[in-house]
């Protein structure tokens, strides 16, 4: 990594090529799937609960079905049909609907504990090293749809050295609404082109790119489990395409 | 500090007595005067500019007079007579009014540089050690009237290890309005009594206390310069009364 190739002229880069890191002040991260393994972490907690109760739930499948309700749950807020509420609230509503569908009864304490499983997500093995390297010369912060308390709990537990907690709850807009990216850049007093979004999801990078952000695609081939079929390759002309956070740091010369 | 006296029953403490740190999840900090020496830092930058221009300004007096406009500048926003704008905007307006009063002309670049002096504030010598100790077991974040970009610039330059950047711009309310404290606790998903405000200003602690926050008064006897007459002693029944950030950490058993 110390012997990275020289910076090319226009700052565009493919896998392994560097871009000019001095042109970027803030490196902002999608979190679910990009920074942390939400599926494995939530499934672990569902499995513990299922065993305690003797429910015999397929925990990974349960996590997937809970997550299926994630995008639809934000739609009314994105379209102005509902006031902004934090993701913890949407997670709770989605869980209650899923439990009802499955005809599983759960106490208020059990529901609280499951909702808070999203506050105990494990980072991917390369997450901390990459963010720590980037932090030396860049602002590093989550730009997630997760709420502030969730992001703080995850970071404190995992030791993620964020400079700030940004994202949906701060700007009161859920990605991929343009306001989520543009208001974040405005809060940082930065033009969008001095912000980079790091994400393992093409749709998120597409929306950020439309707002003028620089983009880094990090492939996370197991974020949806062993049968992942999407987000295995870049689907846009992203500035950086890599397979780990240290490789993002290397691409920016950090 | 390792031999601090035992925790007393009701968690109340005077200088040197510990309170039960396990009852507090978030330690939130006033910044101007408490974490950083705003007066010395702004005066230093005014002095450099004055010398370059040969203006012969009394830099400390200029800093004081700029700061005199600080509280009045927030009043229309506190009273709902003006939309929230970040403190950088108010600092610029106050500076322009002061320059006009002094009949000093300044270019747009000079004004920008002076406004950004508030992004280059030096911490007090004990600041970093105390916050780093508290960070091990508590959420540590600014709860300042400063805006996010300002707080981030100060922290990155000085190496202040915040977990998050909270405060006026996040909750769109200026202290001592109750919303500034209550909305911050709500964002952290904490009841107010699990939040502590650390401040060198009695009025700030009074407002936080009214909202249910725990309080730590740190005397900063030179924050207003050599002739300081206010905030030299506690004027309320604060939970902790100390003279440094490491002493706040010790009082919480951190």
Walkthrough of the structure:
The structure is a homodimer of 254-residue chains. The relative contact order of chain A is 0.19. Chain A folds into two domains: 21-37 and 121-251, Rossmann fold, CATH 3.40.50; 38-119, DNA polymerase, domain 1. The longest helix of chain A is centred in the N-terminal third of the chain and has 16 residues, at 38-53. Chain A is built from eleven helices and six strands. Chain A has a six-stranded parallel sheet, sandwiched between helices. The first copy, chain A, has 254 residues and is an alpha/beta fold. In chain A, 43% of the residues lie in helices and 10% in strands. Chains A and B meet through helix 7 of A and helix 7 of B.
Number of domains of chain A: 2
Largest Cβ-defined interface:
A-B, 19 and 19 residues
* CATH topology call of the largest domain in chain A: Rossmann fold
User: Measured on Cα atoms, how large is the radius of gyration of chain A?
Assistant: 18 Å
Q: Ranges of chain A with pLDDT <50 over ≥5 residues?
A: 1-14
End-to-end separation of chain A in angstroms reads: 9 Å
Q: Which bin fits the share of residues in helices of chain A? A: 40-55%
Instruction: Kindly report the average pLDDT value of chain A.
Output: 93
> What count of helical segments of chain A does DSSP give?
11
Report the count of strand segments of chain A: 6
CATH architecture of the largest domain in chain A: 3-Layer(aba) Sandwich
Q: What series of H and E elements makes up the topology of chain A?
A: EHHHHHHEHEHHEHEEH
Strands ordered across the widest β-sheet of chain A: 3-2-1-4-5-6
Which class best fits the helix and strand makeup of chain A? alpha/beta
